[in-house]
From TrEMBL:
SMART domains: AAA
Subcellular location: Cell membrane
Gene Ontology MF term list: ABC-type oligopeptide transporter activity; ATP binding; ATP hydrolysis activity
GO CC terms: plasma membrane
Name of the protein: ATP-binding cassette, subfamily B
Residue span, ABC transmembrane type-1 domain: 50-331
PANTHER family referenced in this protein's UniProt entry, alphabetically: ATP-BINDING CASSETTE SUB-FAMILY B MEMBER 10, MITOCHONDRIAL, ATP-DEPENDENT PERMEASE MDL1, MITOCHONDRIAL
Membrane topology term: Multi-pass membrane protein
TM regions (residue ranges): 48-69, 89-113, 163-183, 189-207, 282-311
Matching CDD domains: ABC_6TM_Tm288_like, ABCC_Glucan_exporter_like
Organism this protein belongs to: Succiniclasticum ruminis DSM 9236
Amino acid sequence: MSKDVKAQAPQQGIGPRRGNRFAETEYAKDIGWTLKRIASYFVKEKKLVFGMLAAVLGGTLAGIYAPMLQSNAVDIIAGQRTGDLRTTLVFMLATYLAVSLMRLAQGVCSANLSLRIVKQFREELFGKVIDLPVKYTDTHSHGDVMSRMTNDVENISTTVSQALPSLFSGVLTIIGTAAIMLWYCWQLALLSCGTIFLTVIVTRLLSSFVRKYSKERQTLLGSMNGTVEEIVNGYRTVVAYNRQDQSAEKFCDVSDRLTKAGIRTEVCSGVMGPVMNCIGNIGFVIIAAFGGYFAIHGMISVGVISAFIVYAKQFSRPINEIAQIYGQLQSAIAGAERVFQVLDETSEDLYGLIWEDQEHVSVRFEDVEFGYVQGKPVLKDFSLTIPAGKKVALVGSTGSGKSTVVNLLMRYYDADKGAIWINDQNVEEITRDSLRKHVAIVLQDTVLFSDTIHHNLQYANEKATAEEIKKAAEMSRCHEMIELLPQGYETLLTGAGENISQGQRQLLAIARAFVANPRILILDEATSNVDTRTEKAIQDAMLEVMKGRTSIVIAHRLSTIRDADLIVVLDQGRIVEQGSHDELLARKQKYYDLYMTQYAGFAT
């Protein structure tokens, strides 16, 4: 918010990269605490959780039982077992059908559970973000906050819908399959496990190479995207200095290295499948060879061999899946921890006294001291009285504390020392909600929303009528501009106003402040993006709007505040002089130097 010095937090990461299961995994700092918090969300959806677990359990048991029926059918055909083949085949068909139905039910339950839990996360997180104090958004990367709302929450959604069912199913499958294999023939079961261990070892080995090359590729991809963005955004400068060839060489160098890293990553990833199939086939050979030997010696039947082939595949598949989703689970837990960190932030204090509305409003600063960073005050011993209905201008060099005065008055921050009074009420005792309802502010950095012009103007006062909105637009000299647009007041602003000029956006912001009909009006470089002629028209309009209102104007162009009732000059957080325009010029001190510098044509 402030243009003065602020505490800047270090840029934080934007969460784990997606789309590559071998990418670097982000780990939570306190896994136990995070898991307990996550579990509380599952408790609210007990029916879906039990439904999903029941579907996983039913599908897993049916999947384990089906090869046993297959074994019985083979033995009946081979004459090694008595029984009704038709009945056995019907049961086997019904079992495989049950597996499919259970997996369908599992998918439906997990999808609903995922969406419901993510809905809880998003609603709580968004509700928290809009209640956070301005200090939090000033000291945290906006991209990081957005990432927690999107990437981290989406990561949790993917884990709930895919990884958790696979984890539960995998664990049950491993336990059940191992028990059946040991029950059938423990010797053949132990021989089959040899390929399982080989699979795990090879997977870990190849994954380490893929992870290494994947990290390099992601780094180079970020570098290439940064290069492209830099060239596109600064294309006029590139062309002006004839740096096209050098820019192309820089891009091609990064692109070549990215291509090499990508080839290494894809080759290592591509090898994974064939190697796993090869190991699996070796396992089938072992089962066929030793199974045949055991069958000849009467230790097992032919049907058991067929069942073992299915079980061996069932046993190795979940092991690979669990190894692959381990990183995804860790990243999801880390993402949840990042979300909980925001949820645990202290919200803006909404308690206090209600604004005592009066027709005449004065503002008084008493010995105020404040700094964005502890030990580095921006305002020092700041005392100022703004009489009711008067226009006071704050001027001074960049970083002198002008915008900080506004931040404290709006209670974006609270003063470290001293007090701010509105009539007889201490600002820190007034609720932020009632305070801001009576104060309107127009910033240099205009913020509009992707909506119609009418709704953007009505944003300041939802009860404002179309006639009141039109009147505010006329007063701010933007009614004719609006009427020239395709749909007038119903024109949709795309990209938060990118389809109109910066000057037009600022005019709309001024009109929006007029719609609010405030007791206190704050203009922070409000006409910096309009031409001189329009600025003069707005100044004339403001004279009418400011009648009876306490007004604070921050301006660098000193010609725009000549008519101010009081001009306050700040330097390094202190008031160095104050008075009318003519009085300050006559003293020939700080204000005189600023004015003459501008008059001479130099920037201040």
